């Protein structure tokens, strides 16, 4: 297999849904109806998974329809993420089920499968003119406790924010400089076929 010539636009032929996807921190503090959130989660539902186990569980809090839950979810983020995530329309946590339901054995692929579901949700969001921002800076153990989940059976894989993009100027000064799509590694650095 030969690589495309160096210098060729790496986006050529790639859907704009992929290269226009990025993770802003500035959100517009706009209402998002529950039907829109349901579509995003429904897109995730169709993701592939080992043995079709579908180990993902999406827990969401919509600021416009459940402000109390949104506040609880905001407090389950690390402080640095709280400062900007407060303006998102929806906050959520992606939780992975660690064991297969059909035989109770450990599922070594649950995190990978959750990642596939997250990407499907994110691309559906972009198709609808929305943005997402995934977060590793979350209070993992506190999230499971808050949701009443057993840490032996579940892992809080990530947090996420959903909404319409806001203005960089609304962010703290240190974050304004980061408010642009981050670069990608060159194709020949991640594609090793020799």
Detailed description of the structure:
- By secondary structure, the chain is of the alpha+beta class.
- The protein has a domain of 132 residues: NADH Oxidase (3-Layer(aba) Sandwich).
- Helix content is 34%, strand content 15%.
- The chain has 8 helices and 4 strands; from the N terminus they run ααβααβαβαβαα.
- Strands 1-2-4-3 form a 4-stranded antiparallel beta sheet, with helices on both faces.
- It is globular and about 50 Å long.
- It starts with 15 loop residues before the first helix and ends with a helix.
- The N terminus is likely disordered.
How do the helices and strands line up, and which of them pair or pack?
Elements (H helix, E strand, L loop, with lengths): L15 H4 L14 H12 L10 E7 L4 H8 L4 H7 L4 E8 L12 H18 L3 E5 L4 H8 L6 E10 L9 H4 L10 H4 L4
Antiparallel strand pairs: 1-2, 2-4, 3-4
Helix pairs in contact: 2-5
């Amino acid at each position: 297999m030969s690589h495309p010539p160096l210098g060729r636009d790496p986006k050529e032929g790639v859907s704009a849904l992929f290269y226009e996807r990025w993770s802003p921190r500035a959100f517009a503090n706009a209402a998002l109806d529950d039907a829109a959130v349901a579509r995003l989660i429904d897109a995730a539902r169709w993701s592939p998974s080992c043995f079709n186990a579908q180990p993902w569980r999406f827990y969401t809090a919509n600021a416009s329809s459940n402000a109390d839950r949104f506040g609880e979810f905001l407090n389950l983020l690390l402080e640095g993420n709280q400062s900007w995530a407060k303006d998102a329309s929806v906050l959520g946590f992606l939780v992975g089920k660690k064991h297969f339901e059909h035989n109770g054995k450990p599922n070594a692929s649950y995190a990978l499968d959750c990642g596939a579901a997250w990407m499907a949700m994110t691309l559906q969001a972009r198709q609808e003119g929305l943005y997402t921002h995934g977060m590793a800076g979350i209070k993992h153990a506190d999230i499971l406790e808050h949701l009443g989940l057993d840490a032996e059976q579940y892992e809080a894989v990530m947090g996420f924010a959903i909404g319409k993009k806001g203005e960089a100027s609304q962010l703290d000064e240190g974050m304004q400089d980061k408010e642009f799509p981050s670069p990608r590694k060159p194709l020949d650095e991640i594609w090793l076929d020799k």
